[in-house]
Amino acid sequence: MLLTPQESRTRIAALRGELQRRNLTGFIIPHADEYHNEYLPPCAERLAWLTGFTGSAGLAVVLQDEAALFVDGRYTLQAGTQVDPELFLLRHLTQSPVHEWLSTVLKPGQTLGYDPWLHTETDVEHLREACAEAGGELSSCSSNPLDAVWIDRPAAPTAMVVSHNVQYAGTSSEEKRKALARQLQADGIDVAVLTAPDSIAWLLNIRGGDVAHSPLPLGFALLHSDGAVGVFLDPRKVSAKLSDHLGAEVTIHGLNTFPTTLDELGACQARVLCDTRRSAAWILHRLTLAGALLVKGDDPCVLPKACKNPIEVHGAREAHRRDGAAMCRFLAWLGRENPKGEITEILAQEYLERCRQESPLWQDASFPTISGAGANGAIVHYRSTARTNKKLEPGKLYLVDSGGQYLDGTTDITRTLAIGLPTSEQKDRYTRVLQGHIALASVRFPKGTTGGQLDALARMPLWEVGLDYDHGTGHGVGSYLNVHEGPQRIAKRLDDVPLHPGMILSNEPGYYKTGEYGIRIENLMVVVPCQDMPQEDREWLSFETLTLVPLDHTLIDRSLLAAHEIEWINRYHRRVCQVLLPLVDQCTAEWLTDATQLL
Q1: Which long-range CB contacts under 8 A does 5-13 form with residues at least 24 apart?
Q2: Local structure of residue 98 (DSSP, 8 states)
Q3: What average pLDDT does the structure give for the chain?
């Protein structure tokens, strides 16, 4: 969403006028909706509408005399190209947190407004402390002031909710509900509030279409300690077939009844489990006022959803086989066509998407493809447009990060390719990224290890020469659900969530030289029991790589590699060739055989 300077000024002026009418000094606009999912429907893209920034994470604060946009390291370059610097000061979300900035710019007696549906309780606590430090006040808004000036705001989505077959889910909804209900009973909890769309989709074995690329039904749910579930959805999304699938223990209610149902829980003083890190502050406040006894804890679906069952792991393997064949068809085509000099980022992206769409069980892309040539590849979450579209030119690198949603699994893969002959610097950087990738893929670790404890393995080859990358090394991935799934991840932050068998994560170290090129190598991998370590005193785990696509030989500097790293690459390429050759056409098979030659 590229806004003209006039559009930006008009929109921020309209918002400031609305704030004045409400006696507010300022307002906070996070990239969030009431469900607190990473990806939003168009009606919830308030941050993009106001600022022009289209990334999946960020936050703006608009005061009467100044405004600031906060983004993390993935989006600093993107924000610089999308947002008018005369209207918004650009800040790094982690290096200069919003609450620190507020404590210095807010003046005594001023009031900052927020929408309690768009912030968690933790968010609100930090913001309230910052306002108090400045002598100001944080005020909850009964309605969102930005919505009042967003005249052409899209309607809420109404995509039909459908069942997700147990042949792909692996476990029936009844089994999941009963298992979680037993845990609620053991913890003395009457009901758990579920606000995360992917938790509800996983628990009930349903999928939706309310959000682009993630098959999510937007709504709320209450899981009771007897295994019964109340689901709160727009009734236009519900069919008789869905009701039959859900069964008698799952009742469907309109979204407008959710507040009064919370009041009823309070009236009977129910013990209610709420995830304060993932649920809107509005919900916790409503329950508290109604008299419910709040139990603050994790969404009970998060961990079992992350630990894929054997059917889901098998589905992930199969999805990656088909996805690998589609990627190889694309790469073989690119190798044939690009020397003609006419391939652009958008043409390449469109061809790759067509290759995936021909695969059985394909449903959608798992996220908008990142197709970046040359300098555009250095923008971590780049999206090619008619204005930015580049040709794939000799001497440049091409980075393509893409994935598919299949009924049996979700894929996410990044490959960096040399167009023509790479420079010695490009080969050095690529090889160091590859060394970090291999180190993480090869590690064996004891049960109880977190992703944060493994992150440095992927960065060490870059750190040795004073380089790094400003994003996490790995994120969790769902099973025909969100391509970014918690609670597991691999990042500098030392999370307290240990890695468990069945968790799927990405392995994606990178290096980005602003204005010149970007390098990222990403495979997905699943946590499995370690087969070649004694399990006597403790359980050992390792990673099985799921993604099956060749690496670019021309970018590898063999002189930098140790013997075990060369063996890993050769072993990986042998496996890729063996698995994919039966799945591809003759032309692609010839390319694949050449691309997987031993180093």
Answers
A1: 5/84, 5/86, 8/51, 8/52, 8/84, 8/87, 9/84, 9/87, 11/49, 11/50, 11/149, 12/50, 12/62, 12/67, 12/87
A2: H
A3: 95
* DSSP letter, residue 104: H
- Distances, alpha carbon 517 to alpha carbons 273, 276, 423, in Å: 47, 40, 12
Distance CA 166, CA 525 (A): 23
Beta bridge partners of 250: 229
Looking at residue 278, the DSSP 8-state letter turns out to be T
Q: For the segment 319-329, what is each residue's pLDDT rounded down to a tens digit?
A: 999 999 999 99
Determine the Cα–Cα distance for residues 278 and 37; give it in Å rounded to an integer: 9
pLDDT bucket at 331, cuts 50 / 70 / 90: very high
Alpha helix ranges (H) inside 451-543: 451-463
The residue among 308, 581, 555, 588 whose CA lies nearest residue 437 is: 555
Look at residue 162 and give its three-state secondary structure. Answer: strand
| pLDDT of residue 8 exceeding 70 | yes
Phi and psi angles of residue 418, each rounded to the nearest 5 degrees, phi first: -85, 130
What average pLDDT does this structure show over 79-98? 85
Q: What percent of the chain shows pLDDT beyond 70? A: 99
State how far the alpha carbon of 107 is from the alpha carbons of 17, 22, 90, 111, 210, in Å.
19, 18, 21, 9, 41
Residue 456 corresponds to which tokens in the numbers above?
A: 């440095």
CA distances from 309 to 172, 406, 488, 516 (A): 12, 17, 16, 43
Q: What gap in Å lies between CA 220 and CA 194, rounded to an integer?
A: 6
- Rounded to the nearest 10°, the torsion over CA 136, 112, 40, 386 is -110
Contact 269, 230 (CB under 8 A): no
Mean pLDDT, residues 308-312? 98
| Residue type present at position 499 | L
Q: Any alpha helices (H) in 106-246, and if so which ranges? A: 121-133, 145-149, 166-169, 173-186, 197-204, 240-246
**Range of lowest pLDDT (221-225, 275-279, 576-580):** 275-279
Q: What is the pLDDT of residue 1?
A: 54
What the block records as the tokens of 108 is 């005594």
Kindly report the backbone phi and psi dihedral angles of residue 222, in degrees, each rounded to the nearest multiple of 5, phi listed first. -120, 120
C-alpha dist (Å) from residue 52 to 45, 60, 150, 188: 10, 11, 14, 47
* 533-547 pLDDT, tens digit each: 776 788 999 999 999
pTM metric for this prediction? 0.95
pLDDT digits 0-9 by tens, 218-264: 999 999 999 999 999 999 999 999 999 999 999 999 999 999 999 99
Strand partners, 112: 26, 138
